[in-house]
């Protein structure tokens, strides 16, 4: 199923502003998934497998149950929303997340962890930000604060907040599996409202000369900028009508045109890691160690 | 005076490793100077004007004296080094700094704060990293762990660590002014040793077609990648023999060729902010707010 809105939480504006301010003052833990992102990408662990707020690891491959970390008590409105709106028996992880001057590269989640039907990921924005958009293989969309979004993270998907303004959200992970229905994430069946329509982002038609212009990057690409170029290419589908997966093929084309075997290898390994297959704890980097 | 080595601290490898591990586990405070950087750039405030470890602001324009923050006690070897090697009366700020997959754009420091002769900035790497280099208007150089480097931050300067490995350092700020001599930063005059020679980085001659290849970026530059392109250009002088300041002129040329007035304006404002003039607390961003 494609990404879709499952419900809408009526946040209390004043209380949510206080919780966001509290999140923004919390220590930032180690981040296991930075390689997927550029810019500010930080996660505050509110609910996870260990109950340890410093543990940002997603234990989907083991389907460990979740529990609150001590930080959840410090954000009372979010605490209330999580425990009254959602089914705690299925909730495995909750991250309070901020992204600024940020993009996440086109990628598929869960591919290291097993059958994608076991996992169900939900995003809820805590504040509106006009510069923040998400995408999957079908569309580019703008999440509004309070919307409970199923993000089909098993598809190739991406996002950006190309502004210097914060965009706090919650990322909720649920255990799914046989017989699971989206309504099962909620504490009460009436919270499920699949009638809500998303705000789609209109893109401009892809310019006919786009591939040729991008190919010019083959004369500029180097070990020091291949990461920048990979992320730059990964954002083009967010504003122009090109397939989300095209960026990986462009990157491989650009490196092939450059004739640099090391760059070709990085591009091919990157495509494999981000969209095809990877292992639990596999440690890809665009740059040397 | 150009950047130069002033002395060499014989760190205790085992004790420094413990202090680095402790720094790496500390909460990361708000970062006032992120706009100068891309990638991981974090500062742990060990000594500053307020004594508050969350305060990362450099109060050079007011020449406030410095004092330890509570975090200094948690890194005993660094505490000992700072207090036995340096003159506490001149020390205004000490930041424990990590940079990873990082570059800092060609820029001049202190231009918002008054006469550059009042300020004296010192960098000491806590660990070696072959991928980490610094530059000023004269040279590209490789700092080695323990070297006490005067960084002539009033010149245009830059740096990168284009690897996924950490590069912890200390950044020390001293009050200088009339009659100040570099040896004055030390607690004892014999610590000053200007005979130490730096490791210079050999660069390749600039390719004759470099300006033409970079100009191809004018067909790719957009609001969503101008920041990436600015940083990409800002790293070229670190590996090719071109003037450090060239990147700002390239960026302006590229945006002019693009014909996009908004991009030209961003490029011109960026050059002004980073190398020509700015106000205390001025808030430049490449991206919209």
TrEMBL record, chains A, B:
Q: Where in this chain does the record put each L-proline 3-hydroxylase C-terminal domain?
A: 185-282
What SUPFAM superfamilies does UniProt report for this protein, alphabetically?
A: Clavaminate synthase-like (SSF51197)
Top-level taxon of origin: Bacteria
Per UniProt, residues of the Aspartyl/asparaginy/proline hydroxylase domain are 50-175
Q: Which InterPro entries match?
A: Asp/Arg/Pro-Hydrxlase, IPNS-like_sf, Pro_3_hydrox_C, Pro_3_hydrox_C_sf
This chain belongs to which protein, by name?
Aspartyl beta-hydroxylase
Q: Which organism is it from?
A: Streptosporangium brasiliense
């Amino acid at each position: 199923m494609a990404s879709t809105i499952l419900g809408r939480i009526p946040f209390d504006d004043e209380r949510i502003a206080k919780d966001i301010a509290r999140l923004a003052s919390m220590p930032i833990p180690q981040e296991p998934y930075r390689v997927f992102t550029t810019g500010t990408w930080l996660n505050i662990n509110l609910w996870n497998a260990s109950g340890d707020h410093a543990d940002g690891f997603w234990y989907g491959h083991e389907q460990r149950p979740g529990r609150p970390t001590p930080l959840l008590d410090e954000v009372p409105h979010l605490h209330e929303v999580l425990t009254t709106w959602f089914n705690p028996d299925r909730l495995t992880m909750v991250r309070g997340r901020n992204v600024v001057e940020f993009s996440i590269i086109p990628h598929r989640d869960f591919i290291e962890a097993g059958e994608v039907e076991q996992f169900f990921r939900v995003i809820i924005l805590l504040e509106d930000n006009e510069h923040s958009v998400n995408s999957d293989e079908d569309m580019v969309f703008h999440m509004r604060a309070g919307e409970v979004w199923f993000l089909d993270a098993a598809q190739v998907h991406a996002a950006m907040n190309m502004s210097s303004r914060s965009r706090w959200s919650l990322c909720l992970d649920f255990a799914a599996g046989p017989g699971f229905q989206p309504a099962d994430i909620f504490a009460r069946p009436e919270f499920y409202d699949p009638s809500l329509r998303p705000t789609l982002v209109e893109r401009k038609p892809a310019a006919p000369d786009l591939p040729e212009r991008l190919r010019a990057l083959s004369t500029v690409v180097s070990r020091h900028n291949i990461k920048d170029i990979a992320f730059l290419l990964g954002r083009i589908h967010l504003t122009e009508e090109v397939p989300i997966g095209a960026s990986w093929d462009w990157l491989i084309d650009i490196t092939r045109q450059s004739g640099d075997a090391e760059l070709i290898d990085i591009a091919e390994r990157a495509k494999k890691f981000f969209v095809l297959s990877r292992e639990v704890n596999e440690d890809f980097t665009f740059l040397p160690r």
